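Q: My labmate handed me this sequence with no annotations at all. I'd like to see what the chain might look like in three dimensions before we decide whether it's worth expressing. Could you predict it?
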Amino acid sequence: MTGGTLRLEVHDVPANDDHAVALVRTMAERGGRNYDANEAHVAHYRDGRLTEFWPLSSDQQALDDLLNA
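A: Here is what I predict for the chain of 69 residues:
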């Protein structure tokens, strides 16, 4: 979707056996739109398998605009 422009800079990943939170800066371009925002990627694990994933953006409108470009 982003033609290879998607980039993630991971700042930290606090985690335990059941949960992980990746604090990242995400950058991408699509259809003439740019996205550059901080995100939290929340993951829940059960029996070593990913069961839920919640990506949270500091600029949801810009992410929506990028995905709908």
